[in-house]
Amino acid sequence: MSETILTPHESLAIIQKVVNSTRQDYHIQRKFYILWGILIAVASFTQYAILNNYISLAWYFPWIFFPSIGLILSLFWGISGKKTTLSYYNHFVLTMWFTLYIAMGISLYISLFYQNSPFPSILVCVGIGTSISGFMMKNRLFILCGILFGIGAIYCLYLPFQQQLLLNGACMLIGNVMPNLISQHV
Amino acid sequence: MFNELDPILNSPVRLAVMSILLTVKHAQFNDLLKETQTTQGNLSHQLKKLHEAGYVQIQKTFKNNYPLTIIHISETGKKAFEVYVENIKTYLHLNENNT
After folding, report:
1. Where are the strands (E) in A58-100, listed by range?
2. What domain range includes position B34?
3. Which residues in chain A have Cβ-Cβ distances shorter than 8 Å to B25?
4. Residues of B in contact with A10 (CB under 8 A)
5. Cβ-contact B28, B68 below 8 angstroms
6. Residue B1 belongs to some domain of the structure
7. A78 vs A180, which has greater pLDDT?
8. Helices (H), B1-99
9. Cβ under 8 Å to B: A residues 15-44
10. Over 80: is that where the pLDDT of A148 sits?
11. pLDDT at residue A110 above 50?
12. Of A2, A89, A19, A21, which Cα lies nearest the Cα of B15?
């Protein structure tokens, strides 16, 4: 079988074309971000309902029940999911979110220890992750949503705890679930 | 003097495959097929050549009863690609323009 031999100009053109056109966001598992955004929002709204006596459950119930659902589904999806092309972008984003989840867990523990509200620090962590993802993808929507989380974190400081729950839930839906849903269908 | 361009890399599909593999941690066969816009048979043939030269590592597995082929670029492949790009730059006098 005869092969096309490339000239240096053609070679350079192929390399430039391929590198520019190769998608860097191969198979981003947006369902994980959507799932966790919804679960944290629902947990926040449920705790608000509990604190206002709309539902009679222990105050900590939503923070055990909904994250457990998230963990089980994430493990199931992770194990059953196909191994696909992993871009360096995706690898970085996955590592970054893993680190941020650990940071959120630690800040939650610190907040409980000092009996402070954990929401400002959680919103900051999610905001950092969303903004960096936006800058990496060159996606303005994600950058704006990251800024929204930052504003939400500062605004949280001026709100009573119960309203912080509503703000946290709203930020998760608008800043996390919405951009991932939109990007999934683009 | 100009160095001869690596004959393994100096072919459109193989060069495209190597360029893609440099931008990803690992790639799935079907994604390479989409990006290179070639036929399944041709891609398999070109991958075999790259594999024989030690430029890529091919991992064949099954997932949910479907065959799954994952391709990685090897260290030898990375070095060969770097040398190839340097040689192209020399041919095109790009090194002198950039310095």
Report:
1. 86-87
2. 12-98
3. 86-88, 90-91
4. 12
5. yes
6. no
7. A180
8. 12-23, 29-36, 40-52, 75-91, 94-98
9. 15, 18-19, 21-22, 24, 26
10. yes
11. yes
12. A19
pLDDT in tens, B12-71: 999 999 999 988 888 999 889 988 889 999 999 999 999 999 999 999 888 777 788 999
Distance CA A63, CA A47 (A): 8
Confidence band of B99 (pLDDT split at 50, 70, 90): very low
Q: Is residue B5 part of a domain?
A: no
- The answer to whether the Cβ–Cβ distance between A15 and B20 falls below 8 Å is no
Coil/strand/helix, residue A34: helix
- Answer whether A3 sits within 8 Å of B11, measured CB to CB: yes
Report the 10 Å Cβ neighbour count for B60. Answer: 10
Residue B23 sits at the chain A interface (C-beta within 8 Å): yes
**Size of chain A in residues:** 186
Give percent of chain B above pLDDT 70: 92
CATH at B60: 1.10.10.10
Domain count, chain B: 1
* B7 in any annotated domain: no
CB contact under 8 A, B19 and A84: no
